[in-house]
Amino acid sequence: MITFQEALNHTTKEIPELDTELIHLRDSYGRVLAQNVYSDINMPPFNKAAVDGFACRRVDLEEPLEVIETIAAGKVSQRTVAEGKCAKIMTGAMLPKGADCVVMVEQTELLADGRVKILNLKTKNNIAYKAEDIKTGELVLQSNTLIAPQHQAVMAAVGATKIIVYRKARVAVFSTGDELVEPEQQPEQGKIRNSNGIQLVNQASRMGCEVRYGGIIPDTAEDSERMIREAYHWSDVILLSGGISMGEFDFIPAVLQKLQFDIKFRTISVQPGKPTVFGRSGDKFVMALPGNPISSFNIFELLAKPMIYRLMGYAYTAKRFEFPLAVDYKRKRSVRLAFIPAILNENGVNPVGYHGSAHINALSAANVLFEIPVGTTEMLKGEKVHVRFI
């Protein structure tokens, strides 16, 4: 058995990045940049008004000013603001020649003769100056950035409409076990519905992976080998749940070895999630997760997610936060690092009613995993604890 940190090192160190492809900006959300992005223009491209108001010369502010024109955003003034003059201007419009400040409309008074009186003689300039945000040729986004909407906005502003990104990871998902039936079926005696399949498919899908669900692998060595071998040829990562403990019908570890996967670990000192298998065959990877749904969910979030993101070029690290416990907490065994479903609210961290890793609805209300260190059996209300958002 290895520690959680050792398992994390195996799943994040020396992971090769996938091939790259050229895509359009509109399709880039959730993808990972495989290039640096530089600006092709200055931002702003010209001096522009930062507020709605009047473009003026500061030396003229003490006397009422004649309004010579109105400048809308997107329009270019053909006139010069000279002595005793000003121009009404909208936010984002290009500053006219001669003006060196913009007085907010709220700080002015329109006189009966049509002139404008300035009420705040110490106004700020209220100008967004040319190139004060970005200069032509400046690096705006680094390679290996996980693209979010704000990154798309930056790329749109600098004209980066065709970008190079890492290919989506191809992930094959299987559940294992003769006790399973698909959710559409009514379970017969001794059977249960397959909940891990849809859970894992969508955990991978929300990362932006290309996911194929391969179904339920029966408890035979022949079926296990055939179905995993087929997935091997298509996928970058094979995710399985169940079939990896020491039962008579747990064929998965032997099948993986037959398919020449180098097994890096078989058990982890984590609760829940101890029976987890991770292996590599060239540039392909397999992670066989425990069959209980909370174990499966946790190990995907803790180990599979960072591994798959590394394949797609993104150095994902789960953020850990400290919050106070809302209640006292005890556990009987403390030999493993535990990640327990919990609810974080204004009162602190509240562990959910949790009966073990098969307690399927314990995660439905949880928004964090509450971390309990090795050797700790009791934590008191108000004590600071580490959580990870899920």
- What structural category do the secondary elements indicate? alpha+beta
Proportion of residues in extended strands? 25-35%
Major β-sheet annotation: 6 strands, mixed
**Helical percent range?**
10-25%
Looking at the structure, the CATH topology of the largest domain is: Molybdenum Cofactor Biosythetic Enzyme, Chain A
Low-confidence region ranges: none
Structure notes:
The protein has helices at residues 4-12, 149-157, 196-205, 221-234, 252-258, 293-311, and strands at residues 20-24, 37-38, 48-49, 53-56, 66-71, 85-89, 101-104, 108-110, 116-118, 127-128, 139-141, 162-166, 170-176, 180-181, 192-193, 210-217, 237-241, 262-265, 270-271, 277-281, 284-289, 321-324, 329-330, 337-345, 348-351, 368-372, 378-379, 384-389. The protein is an alpha+beta fold and 390 residues long. The protein has 4 domains: 4-17 and 168-311, Molybdenum Cofactor Biosythetic Enzyme, Chain A, CATH 3.40.980.10; 20-43 and 133-166, Molybdopterin biosynthesis moea protein, domain 2 (Alpha-Beta Complex), CATH 3.90.105; 48-128, Beta Complex (Molybdopterin biosynthesis moeA protein, domain 3), CATH 2.170.190.11; 321-389, Beta-clip (Beta Barrel), CATH 2.40.340.
